[in-house]
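A further point concerns the way the authors explain their paired sequence and structure data. Each protein is reduced to its one-letter sequence and a matching series of backbone shape codes. An entry of this sort, consisting of the sequence and the corresponding backbone structure tokens, reads as follows:
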Amino acid sequence: MKLYQYPTASQLAEIIKRPTKDSADLTATVRAILDDVRERGNQAVIEYEQRFDKAALSSLAVTEQEFAEAELLVSDELKAALQQAHDNIARFHAAQRYAGIEVETVAGVRCWQRSVAIERVGLYVPGGTAPLFSTVLMLATPARIAGCADIVLCTPPRSDGSVHPAILVAARIAGVTKVMKTGGVQAIAAMAYGTESVPKVSKIFGPGNQYVQCAKQLVSLGDVAIDMPAGPSEVAVVADSTASASFIAADLLSQAEHGVDSQVLLVTTSESVYTTIGDELDRQLSALPRCGIATQALDNSRIVLVSDLDAALDIVNRYAPEHLILEIADPHAFAGRVVNSGSIFLGHLTPESAGDYASGTNHTLPTNGYATAYSGVNLDSFCRKITYQELTAEGIRSIGRTVELMAEAEALYAHKNAMTLRINSTQP
């Protein structure tokens, strides 16, 4: 990790910079796969599964027999953990239900909103280097609570053509409608355009590698909505002299092990933490099964020593981290001043992994600085708001002339006439 002591203003841009990639070749590769799946449907998806996941598939849909077999392969202990995580996620997201309020904006004019679920949503759950069955719960649970009628989940199969059993058990717990054996760009294409087996969805959710994220952004240009633009996973930790070096290192490594392009950032006011954290990272890193991945991620990462928490706050708000862990004496005071972050973890006993799995908040969050403008996935992500208005004769008298004047000033005379006719019809 690169070290900075009391950085100058000119160094801040370097500190908050994410790993960059040349996207030209990536976009061309992704677009070619998208076009192929749109043209050839299932056959193209099956061919890409053989090519990328080494899985020889005759069909894409997971069968009832496969669901039943998965139940036998997952331990009762893990099933109970999945159920508890689901229940906490459900409790938190159910509390987000929208209660519309009717407003009389002026005499005789009533306006209100109604929340309506998106009818069919697509969930992408990576398999890759780790089967993210937790993501199934994070996406499907609020989709079901919102009332989405059709919840389609795509996930890459293993080389023998099966889906990781914990993903299937989580899908059943959370209320997924269909599970399809496809990953990568071809999965995004299948959900965006529809194939003989994969229904076209209205909105796609979920994390993925750079190819998946590029695919999501390309299909969002005209074919389907997406949850948010995203990049590699990341965490920022703010620590003072009350922080535990072992906790800090564990939190940094828990994010670094996601992928080689992940990034972690430690901002500390403690010279002791600054000088000792490297040794603690090395000690814990050597014991990790994903040591190689985490080591490469640390190459993209920084440790910053600052004079006070105000300086730390400035860096955090500029960086806009996906996850922010506050290992400081008074985390609530600091958190109240943070304006750019996907999710905040307060205090020494709140690791980011709690939110990843079971606290109840959603772990699908904006990365790559998008926390300046995007929220993480929540119940509203699966809904639309339809607005309503109703005018009475009194309402026509209240705003009729205003509408006429504004429409005429914009030279939209049909607009004016639509109101004029109603004004005349309500004259005594």
